[in-house]
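ok so I'm stuck.
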Amino acid sequence: MDIKNLPIVEIKNGILILQVVTAIVGSIYFAKYKHTILKYLLYLIWYVVINDTIAGYYSEHVCKYNAPFYNVFQLVSFTLYLLIFKDAVKSLQFKRIVSFFIVAYYVTFFINLLTSNFKEIYFSFSYVFGALFIISSIIMFYSEILNSDKIININKMLIFWVSIGLLVSFLPNIPFYIIRKYYIDSPTIHYIFITKYFLVFTNNILLISGFIWSNKEQKD
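replied:
not stuck anymore, here's the structure
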C-alpha cells in the first residue's frame, strides 16, 4: 500500500481524539497528583488539545504556515518538562545541572529565533538540544531511583510513566529533526511523519496508563 494514500486527516483526527481522552483521564485522576508539580502536566495536555485544534484550523482556513503555534508550544512544554525533572531529582548537583539545561535551552531557542523564520519554520535546532537536555535529566532521575528504595514501586510513580513516554517520543525524533530540512522533499519523509503519529499514540497510551495505575503522590 502506498503510504501517500493513507488517510492522514483521519489519522490526525484520531490522534486528537486520543489526546482528549488522555486529558479526560488525567482530569479524573487529578486528585492523585494535584499537590505536586505534575499537576501542570494536566494543563499542558489540555493545552496540546487546544493548540492542535487551533493550529489545524489556522493552517486550513487562514494560512498554511502554523509553525508559531508549535514554536510557542515547544518553549512551554520543554520548560515544564525540565522543571518537572528538576523537582524530581534530589541531588543539589543534579538540580543545578537541570537549571543549566533550562538556561541553555533558552539560548538555543533565542538563536533559532534570530536565524529562522518564526512564522514559517518549526525550530528544529532548539528542539534537538531541548530533547537532549530532557533525556539527560531523565537519566539523572533514573540514576537516583536505581540507588533508592523507590525502585521497588517505580511503576506506581506517575513520573516514571511520563519519563518513558518522553523517551519514546524524543529518542526516535532527534535524528528526524536533525535531517528533516535536508530531506523535506524526499519520498521517505511521508514514512517519517507516519512514525511520528505512532510515537504520539504510544506516548498518550503511556500517560493514560500512568494516570490509572500510579499511586497517589505525596505533597511537595
